Amino acid sequence: MTKTAVILFNLGGSDEPKAVKPFLFNLFRDPAIITLPNPLRWIIAKLITLRRTGKAKAIYQQMGGKSPILNLTLAQADALEQKLNRSRKDGAGEYKVFVSMRYWHPMSKAVVKNVKNYDPGRVVLLPLYPQFSTATTASSFADWKKNAESAGLKAPTSRVCCYAADLGFIAAHVKLIKDSYWKASEQGKPRVLFSAHGLPEKTIAGGDPYQWQVEKTVAGIVQIMAVDELDYAICYQSRVGPLKWIGPSIDDEIARAGKDGVPVVVVPVAFVSEHSETLVELDIEYRRLAEKRGVPAYWRTPALGIEPLFIETLADLCLKAQQEEGTASFNGGRYCSRGLNKCPCV
Prior knowledge:
It is a single chain. By secondary structure, the chain is α/β, with parallel strands linked by helices. Among the domains are: 45 residues, no CATH class; 134 residues, Rossmann fold, CATH 3.40.50. The chain contains eleven helices and nine strands. The strands form two sheets. Strands 2-1-3-4-9 form a five-stranded parallel β-sheet, sandwiched between helices. Strands 6-5-7-8 form a four-stranded parallel β-sheet, sandwiched between helices. Strand 7, helix 10 and strand 8 form a beta-alpha-beta unit. Helix 3 crosses helix 11, helix 4 packs across helix 5 and helix 9 packs parallel to helix 10.
């Protein structure tokens, strides 16, 4: 019986106060995040970590001292594993879903060993980053490849690079957005703010498809929502460092909504698991900013989590990916336009 190991990639997060510092260091020493060569990158990562640890600990304190992202990702993995094994045909083999975090435990070095012990006939790499970026998916793929080669894991491997415009993914978002949208409508026609994690402009200028894919996700949601003259904007959050980042920022869009006197519905369009960027930034910090700027109502749709439509989407992506070895988008080939040269699909 063929066994398939599915690897869910996510960012990770500190699981106790003393883990904040090493988590941040792991993040900033990643060459996909700070593109300087060593030892300069190591030094810069140390300096940024020292400067940001206190603020990060305060953020984690607002979440009870640790990030919920691991437990939430494990719940997604369990739901996906059950869905895959329930859906399989007789004799079609079994599925086991593993969680691999990029910057905190369980990280790929340990997960690769567990996968090797499972002895699968195929491995499917499935990022919980719907839109591909060199700073997220590509980094996770590269780290996995390095550790898989080191451990001697030689099972044929399929990689799902993105699912930014997958119809199931879009439908799952629309289902959650509509509830918040109609509640917000009680206080006027709302403006939907689709918020995604930002990136430096130079990253996008270098051919990274992330922003293009975020825009495709939003276009799909807007089309399916079918609201007459939907008022919406795409914006970006979580800026770090002195570089110029893509915009507009969510700060600016909240200020504009306050000036226009419209309620807002904030949609974390690139986050599928709750973590500090949603539970603290969106739910606490930007809610306060909205109140300060005179926004009449502030709603935030939840991350997709274990929404059945989303889990079904992930299962479909796994089944499609099994058909061929290599890297492909949700539609089985290259999705990005040709000018986006960081796209990994051939």
